[in-house]
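Lab manual, section 2.4: Encoding a predicted structure.

Procedure: take the sequence of the chain (437 residues), apply the prediction step described in section 2.3, and record the output as structure tokens. A sample record is shown.
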Amino acid sequence: MKLLLRITAWLAVALTILLSAWAVFFYIATIDEINDETDDSLIDYSDGLIIRKLSGVELPSDDNGTNNTYYINEVSADYAAAHDWIRFEHEEVFISSKSEYESARVLSRIFMDREGKYFELVVAVPTIEQEDIQRSILWWIVALYVMMLISVLGICVWVVGYNMRPLKAMLAWLDEFNPGKKTVPVPADTNIPEFRKLAETIQSAADRFAEQYQEQRRFIGNASHELQTPLASCSNRIEMLLDSQDLTEAQANELVKVHRSLQDLIRLNKTLLLLTRIDNGQFPDVSTVDFACLLHETADLFGEIYRGRGVAVESDIAAPFIHEMNGQLASVLVRNLVKNAIVHSSSGAVVRIFMDSDGFSVSNPGTSPLDGTMIFTRFYHSQSSSEGSTGLGLAIVDSVCRCSGLAVTYRFEESSHIFSIKKAEKDKISNSFQNLS
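Recorded output:
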């Protein structure tokens, strides 16, 4: 879950609990306040009635137009002793002016006159319906809750999103970071100390990574270059020994094996040199490349070389694919794809090439899919890899595509391995730090 969504969810839960507790408190406080005000008015009204009763003054009508009702009954001493002299209750009372029952707050008071007689005064004042007030408060609380929740969450989302801009800028920088190319510094234009510290840490880690990457590339390049001469010298000496007449058959066989292994090492060394040159950007020249011509030439060339394997190459050129890139790298790209398809095909198989204006694909028969996450990794060998394979062919294809504005993809469909080349979208060109976003 994204950080912003997680913060929003936690805020929603916290606000729900807080507003629910507030709603209960608000309801209880509102009902208590209403009852207190009503009780005060009942006491004042009953005091006036009791004073007039004890003074012998004529009592007002029990229906005076205010919906207040009362009655006075004489009670026994036992009744007075058994009941509280002041009681408040909620009852349904009949309002004669409306000829209907209404909810009322009722005050019952017991008092004694000068003759020692006990009387009970019951005064009722219509009040709001409990159910009505509960319903009204409930709806208002729900409406208030929804408005507050939306408002608070909206403000929080905006505030968090606004203050997270430095983090988004750093993530965007990581998306574009390529250790083999010059990059701008990590954006740190913020007054938030935590983000400044994070930017400094990222910049330090990126600098160390870029330095180690450059050291690794220099080491591979220098080592491969230095190995060229001794490898070629060893190969020549073995060939001279093989031409000698003094070798036994067993010695000659052993030298042949050594020479074969040495040739594999020479081929691996040349491939590493090529990869290093590609990574170092040593192919700056760009021209318009017609891949249709390249594929025709390559298919004819490898068709002749591998004719003994019984592998046929079929081409379907719907439209030429034109791209601006280095011509030498384009040849390397096509040769590696076609050779990889032929070498990994069994006798009698057909390698198919399809091309249109958007790109081209090379497919060959297979029994099971390859590991799509590893096939473009250097020195990766599948179970079907042929003897002497360096495991760098597809890695070279991937490197050429990345530095030439192309994208290579792999899929396994209808018992065929399919490698497709298309122009890469600018905002989706892969880089070595894309998994950090």
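Check your result against the sample. The mean pLDDT is 79.
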